[in-house]
Amino acid sequence: MMDRNEARRLAHELVSQMTVEEKASQLRYDSPAIERLGIPAYYWWNEALHGVVRAGTATVFPQAIGLAAMFDEDMQQEIASVISTEARAKYNGQVAHEDRDIYKGLTMWSPNINIFRDPRWGRGHETYGEDPYLTTRLGVRFIRGLQGEGKYLKTAACAKHFAVHSGPEAIRHEFDAIAGPKDMWETYLPAFEAAVKEAGVEAFMGAYNRVNGEAACGSKTLLVDILRNKWGFEGHVTSDCWAIRDFHTRHMVTSTAPESAALAIKMGCDLNCGNTYLHLMQAYEEGLVTEEEITVCCERMFTSRFMLGVFADDCEYDEIPFTACDTDEHDALALKAAEKSMVLLRNNGVLPLDPAKVKTIAVVGPNANSIPALEGNYNGVSSRYVTFLEGVRAYAKEHGMRVLYSEGCHLFKDRVQNLGLESDRLAECAMVAEAADVVIACVGLDATLEGEEGDTGNAFASGDKLNLNLPESQQKMLDALVATGKPLVTVVAVGSALNIPQGDAEILAWYPGQAGGTALAKILFGEVSPSGKLPLTFYHGVEELPDFTDYSMTERTYRYFTGKPLFPFGFGLSYTSFEVKDCAVDGETGWVTATVANTGKMDGETVLQVYVRDTQSQWETPNAHLAGFARVAISAGEEKQVAVKLDKNAFTVVNGEGERIADGKVFDVHVGLSQPDALSCELTGQTPVKATVTFE
To answer: What residue spans in the chain does CATH classification 3.20.20.300 cover?
Structure first.
């Protein structure tokens, strides 16, 4: 990678030739050209959450929460590398055509490594779930994939939203998230720290809300004391979009736009996504900010541009052609990811379907033929979408089966046809089911029901969920399907927890990307055994949870929840059976080895999971916490030795002051295919192997 000191020297040399007005202009997300210095215009705003977004054709991978369900670090990095290849391919072609518009730069405002602490949060599907360790591992590998391993940055990744941000969306512009030191350093900060220290992430984005009283994008605690001084971050910081405006209009931590611009600059928020830095020169003229402070921010921004090689004539990524985008190979990877991400939650034996016995299939529901149900949010546009209906129909045609289809109901309205009566597709849905041997009900949500506040005109609660139930329109449809008595499989496209009791089997498809329909068909008919695991806890209802605005971790996520959930973190069924036969734990080196056997009749993949708990410390979480995992493919009848490197913090705890310490000396280590909790053991029929590690 290019030496940062050299990039910094080049940036200093270039910026020293600018006027103060020119320096200030370069701190906007839409930085204008400075023609006399040969600097082209640059749009900093781009996204790469699960593919290159909003700038034409690109491969659409499963939404981030689906990527998390794979529990696969290597594939996470491979996917991010493909995304950065497509980003470079598009950038190279666009620059050649002098197209320097929004979403066409190399600074990707991804990944979102916030903790999905409450299932109501609409943006939770942009994250890697509720666990800080899983989020850390996947965030590090995604950043590495985006940034590459060449002389220059392939793209610049951005860790967001720093740091305590997970709803509610409706009040995010004035909300103060209060989190104590233990929760900060145990839950909310670890993934961000690893992004700096392990992944070398080039950029950070602040959050909209305040954190313990300070506006996140102008927080001395977060941006100065922790990010730069404690962690040694050397890249640049951007605000969330129009978040600095909130300083004086919503948070009331300043009185005017110039004051807000000055506060953000002084705290090291280098780039403004928004328009408040249009007031930066007024702040300068009023003595609220110095030219030196503006210069520091400007030099950081140009250091990143030099690190990207955009001013170099030897950047290896300049040769990536536009034809490297939307390839067959990338489509195959998207299919593989969709297969690995889907989670089998329930199955009374109806799955996998047998083509020899099933002659007519009913595919019903508002998400059956829906492209938004594949996409999630912050998505690109694929040229290869396969909806659930199309995937099942293609497979059925190949095997001589008939497919009948009905939309069944609107996603959330009480009728499909505005001039129709209530439940105007219910009779058709019932007719289709009655004529079929099995019913595949494609239900759930999409980004118009859960997502970012104002992002797509969310129908309810600014993108957050009010409860964990299906919309009433879909619930009525499922009730009608159950009444037919036909075998019913629910396929749920969603980015969060829902409680759907109907059906003989339930597949959680997430928002599975462009190949979702093909992946679903392969799983339904047993070509592929489901292997995804839940990266978050599924609760029965929101009444089991604390208030949405309470940022304490008490009774939140699998580590702190003391009730019995609907489905536990780390859970997912298979068509075959696996067994962990033994394990050995080396507490000094942090390695765990175990023998995993496929005792069933079908090849498959599973995830070996290691959970650790300090048996003595008062600071330990109520339940054992994930400290290591490894995805493994095992053929039927085969067994493998699997080695897992534990989290370096596996045998430590965080105390009330936020300090990570080695406290107790006796640790329980659970090695299995799930958590060691009672419900996981009940649902899987297996108990993880337990070992005890004692430190003198």
So the answer is: 4-318
- Rounded CA separation 374/66 (Å): 11
Both structure tokens of 428: 């058709």
Please state, as a whole number, how many other Cβ atoms lie within 10 Å of the Cβ of residue 178.
15
Residues of the chain with CATH 2.60.40.10: 578-694
Peptide bond into 168 cis (omega under 30): yes
Taking the complete model, does pTM exceed 0.85, yes or no? yes
In the annotation, is 270 catalytic?
no
**Which has the closest alpha carbon to 175: 161, 156, 154?**
161
* 422 classed as catalytic: no
CATH number of 4-318: 3.20.20.300
User: Can you tell me the distance from the alpha carbon of 223 to that of 243, in angstroms, rounded to the nearest whole number?
Assistant: 15
Q: What is the pLDDT of residues 154-213, one digit of tens each?
A: 999 999 999 999 999 999 999 999 999 999 999 999 999 999 999 999 999 999 999 999
Q: Which of 450, 464, 614, 620 is catalytic?
A: 450
Q: pLDDT tens digit string along 489-541?
A: 999 999 999 999 999 999 999 999 999 999 999 999 999 999 999 999 999 99
Domain at 578-694, CATH homologous superfamily: Immunoglobulins (2.60.40.10)
Topology of domain 328-536, CATH = Rossmann fold (3.40.50)
The residues of the chain that CATH labels 3.40.50.1700 are 328-536
In eight-state DSSP terms, residue 216 is G
Q: Catalytic: which of 240, 299, 504, 605?
A: 240
Both structure tokens of 373: 């149900």
